[in-house]
Amino acid sequence: MTTDTPAAAGRTESRNGRTESRNGRTGPRIGRTEPAIGRDADRLLLSAVRRSGGWAGLLVLAALGSVLAQVLLPAVVGSAVDSAMSGRPDDGRITTCAAVIAVFIVCEVLSDLAAGRSSAAGTAWLRRAQLAHLLTLGGRATARFDPGDLTARLIGGAADAGAAAEAAVWAALSVLPTLTSVVALWLIDPWLALTFLVGMPALVYFLRSYAQDMSALITRYQKVQGAIAAGFVEALGGMRTIAAAGTTDREAERVLRPLPELSGLGHGFWRAQTRVASQSALLAPLLDVAVLSVAGFGLAAGRVTPGEMLAASRYAALGTGLGMTAMFLGRLARARAGGGRIREVLAEPATAYGVRALPSGPGRLELRGVTVRVDGRALLDGVDLTVPGGTSLAIVGRSGTGKSLLAAVAGRLTDPHGGTVLLDGVPLPELSREELRGAIGYAFERPALLGRTVGEAIALDDVAEADRPRLSRAAAAACIDAFVERLPDGYRTDLRDVPMSGGEAQRIGLARAFAHRGRALVLDDATSSLDTVTEFEVSTALTTELAGRTRLIVAHRASTAARCDLVAWLDGGGIRRIGPHDELWALPEYRAVFRPDQPVGEDRPADEDRPADGAGPDAARPSPAEVGT
Amino acid sequence: MNRTPEVSLRTELLAPLRRSPRVVVRLALWSAVEALPGFAAGRLVAGAVDSGFGAGRPGVGMAYLALLGVAVFVGAWATRQVYPRLAALVEPLRDDLVRRVVTGGLHAARTAPGRPDTAGVARLTQQVEIVREAYAGITMVVRRFVFSVGGALLGMCFLEPLVLVVVLPPLLAAAGLLALMLRSTTDAQRELLLADERLAAEAGAVIGGLRDVTAAGAERWTGDRLSTAVERQALAARRVARLTADRTLVLAVGGWLPLVLLLSTASWLTGHGVTAGGLLGSVTYITQGLQPALQTLVQGLGGSGVRLAVTLRRILESTPPEPAAPAPGPAGRTHGPYGVELSKVGFAYGPGAEPVVRDLDLTIGPGEHLVVVGPSGIGKSTLAGLIAGLLRPTGGEVRLGGRPLPADPAELARHRVLIPQEAYVFTGTLDENLRYLAPDAGPGDVDRAVAAIGLEGLVERLGGHRAQIAPDALSAGERQQIALARAYLSPADLVVLDEATCHLDPVAEARAEEAFARRRGSLLVIAHRMSSALRADRVLVMDGTDAVAGSHEELLTSSALYRDLTGHWRRPAGAR
What we know:
The structure holds two protein chains of two kinds. Helices cover 58% and strands 10% of the residues of chain A. Chain A is built from 24 helices and twelve strands. Chain A starts with 13 loop residues before the first strand and ends with a helix. Residues 1-5, 327-333 and 568-576 of chain B have low confidence and may be disordered. Chains A and B meet through strand 2, helix 2, helix 3, helix 4 and helix 5 of A and helix 3, helix 4, helix 5, helix 6 and helix 7 of B.
């Protein structure tokens, strides 16, 4: 009954103690808006059900038993009451009633247990399958889907889909009580069935108007809530200013200004509910009274026994439970949608690795005719590039010329549409995963810090005591050692306790790359958030301590390019020039690459994985070369 | 994470009830009226059968049922009165929590600067709503249970008191069993909730960093750890499933055993004067009163009770009660010009952590322009925070104009202004933003500040001082310029710019720094670019182990690091 629905307002989802973030519910970033719920999805759900180890089968049997007992109960209770009132000893009807009740209880208990167990098993299986696949997809998964959306598929989607068996069973069976109620009422007295059938539509109508009332209110409520949250985030972002100005209370006042409106809308929910609650408090019992009256006349006429009168009243109540069917159908639809969303992820083809090992070599990196298309446009078009083993090569070019894409292709984070990439003569796809990832290390502009501790974030592995010196050396080369040593527990400090600035995170990411023992290193704009002094020190480490490795460095600053052995200048889908920075510097167009005069954030194509807010530390920063003298 | 203030959930949960006792009393009264149909149903059905339909007098039977109809109308009317009272309990709770999350979140961020707790947004939008919904749900369920069970038992008492002999024992047994199970049930639910959240957090982090996992070849390590989280969640879900089944069993005992007992003792009961209608009425009380009430109680308290407790605890723990007002600082301070003296100042972020600033002695003379340079992460911002009084030194003392820094933030703000790297511009008018630190400034003052920073173009583009501005629509550099003009306008005599010009182009940066240098009072600039150092009266070079101050020329001879930095700066490799 809707009387029991508390004001469900600002939250999107909450069942079984689980909540999901609202933005997690947005569709995939590219292409399709609604995942197709197809046969594949249903097949996936069936696989999940099959993985539940017999619990789903038990669920079907127990639920069926429970529903059959449930529809029998009013009749057998009524007949037991008649028997009891006859004043004679039990003629078996009371025993039958007790037996049906016992069956009902056993089936209810078993179906609860089986539903919970099959959901848990199915959900876990779907999650494991998804995780395993996501890990093989790597960054391609997050290029195809929004990360928040992927998490929602893994958490909410799998939970919804895991409950498919339960939802399907109950959706199918919950129609039974309503149908049998009408039949039972008819069997007791046709007038009863007619009374019921007239009363029901009114009930359904009133419930529907309620849902419409609420959705408009919910939208407005969430909007006001969003306004408060936005003000809060704004103030948190400016906390240092606010703290210095001593205006914390004033800011709180400002953020909370829309609160009265929120409160007013909240009361609006209750008003909407008051209407429907009093309606249903009226309708269902009045239906009962009507059925009882009609049954009463039957009793007076001798057509109906007292027990049947009671049964009629119970059947009328059982018959109004059609709302349950709607609920389970809704859950089933959600389960199928969840299955479809998971299926979509699983349908992305995984990266295939070869089996070959690398010969010993200096780490010569070769791109042959590499072509990569984004949205049908060839951003890299037949690029040939060789980085001699042990040398450093800078990739420069204006925004949107495919620098990050080239860096991704060079270490097989993504496969080119045409051409090959070779490391010491071996095409990357022929290498085994371990061999490839062991040979090429990466550092990014915005590294993701994974693991529980700072040490794990650098090692991306469990950290043994023996690894410490290696980690410290890498941290020192990335100029983050002092930072880490000042933390309460050093390398063992919990990552969650160390919120980092962009520059600090970037240096952890650099340390991770420096700790890597491969023969080649790709730095994708990995020093962009460092101030000039720190960048200088990191670059020094790059040219001294890591001198033996092949280094491919995507650079935005002239000083970075200047310190590399060679510079490849990307322009118009290919390499325009290659040579030492000093030579290229003579060309005005080359110098213009480093000048930040182009509009930022307007027309950056999708391949550059930086956010387009233009607020990056070097959004408006001139190259060092131009400020100096 | 490591702060867990004492939180009394009971106090918080009862607070709404305690705050408005009159509402609670009215709610109880209307709930009692609402339970009228439940209370009367069995008695009236019994009457309708015994003296009406069963006795061949349908008119009397109809009269009884008409009475039941009236009771239903009265009950529905009471329902109308109940909801506004529930709203009056629940809505203020939400208001309170929102206020608490915002105020507490801002205060917490103030005392731990540089560590904004963005989880506060989830608390604001999600957790507060969970609490509101669960609180409303539980209030409703408990209320319904108490009044429908009470009504049904009372009804039976009036109808056939003897029936209670067979109905009460199983009901009490079920209640006892539920109470016994409560602990393990809530534990299991809490475990599941936490396992869900841990899994979501870990998976979210990994999914956000899939590219990095692939690049590092850390698939197996990551996969193993996530599988453990999945398994832990499934384990918790299995435990909850078992306990749910247990609860269903108890419910069945409490709800159905009375009926079985009633029917099997019927002949004994009728032998003791229980009528046919009395029996019928009792069955009605059990099936329409007791069973649904038990069911809602078990379902309602199982899930949402725990969710309420866990979520509310989380909100309360992360929003500690407001800190005590700071003790008033030394009064009677006159305005500058004054300098800053640091004597043996030290600072560390934690007891075990290595100090960021160690035994620093530094003087900024009245009207002096000092620039601090050094590698990032070396403690330049910490130094700015210490001088601005945002951080308390763990050793030594900072004095402003010869006196200790005032403890009251508002008082402190009249003497010094700090502009950090992340410029704070809020949604509001441009004028509100500019006069943030000087609400009493006249239009002429505002215009002078705008001109000094070179903001006229932006003011015009935005549509004048009264224009409403959205921070997101401004570039980082424009936001910084607004913050700079705000600082220029403030009454403070000491200006601290902590990389406050990093998003400006060199020309705009120079203009801003020169404007501040001409302004009355002292100026401390934490440099983002070395070019700032060239404009300073004096430069402080920080390099971790020690800090050296001097003029540009002095430092060129005395500091190797400074030589490196400036040398590197002035002779970039590309322009050799």
